[in-house]
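## retry 2 of 3
previous attempt timed out at serialization; input unchanged, resubmitting
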Amino acid sequence: MAETEKDPIPAHKSKGIYLLPNLFTTAGLFAGFYSIVAALKGHFAFAAIAIFIAMIADGLDGRVARLTNTESAFGAQYDSLSDMVSFGVAPALVAYSWGLSELGKLGWLAAFLYAAGTALRLARFNTQLGSTDKRFFIGLPCPAAAGVVAGMVWCGQEFNINAHSLSIIVALITAIAGCLMISNLRYHSFKQIDLKKHVPFFAIIVVVIVFILISVDPPTVLFLIFFLYALSGPIMSLRMRNTLKKRLWHRRKNKK
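## retry succeeded, writing output
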């Protein structure tokens, strides 16, 4: 009996998507969209907190996908689009509504520079997957940049700072965060840390101390963490240049 040919699968038939990791991505997207709505209503503290919640969701979706072996091209693209809203558009609009609107054209240009920096950072990251050193990010990661902007706004609200009186500083921080994202500075990715392996007991103590500090004063501590991380890129670059100069000097000295 001859074998019958199987009917070809229609091109339009959906292959489906993995639900679990995309739930976390959707949660991050929701938090980013809520941040925009809260900022438009003048609830800037809630808007900043929502961005930090989006960071938690963004950190979980990829890890859940890897742990459950549910990684997909759809999930990667969806995650990038969600990041653009949560860490690009939302922080830019929150910063503009909070402290940049008084600057007029200069204010919205600073906000746009930040949003454009996020889009370029995500596009470059997606095209360089697998071709760069996993120990480092090239350019400030967009969640960290969003943490600087959101932390600044949250601190301002917590300490009742008149943002319009410091609008130039707000514009500078927002614009610099956008520029750092598209820079060639290297930032530690911490991907080499294996959570499944044994760690020194001191590491647990450090984690406990960080949690205590965050619980005591969340806006200040979170802002300082992300601000110092943003500074680590230029500092690392300067140290590498100084090290390179010393090596070149020693080589020239030895040749003589």
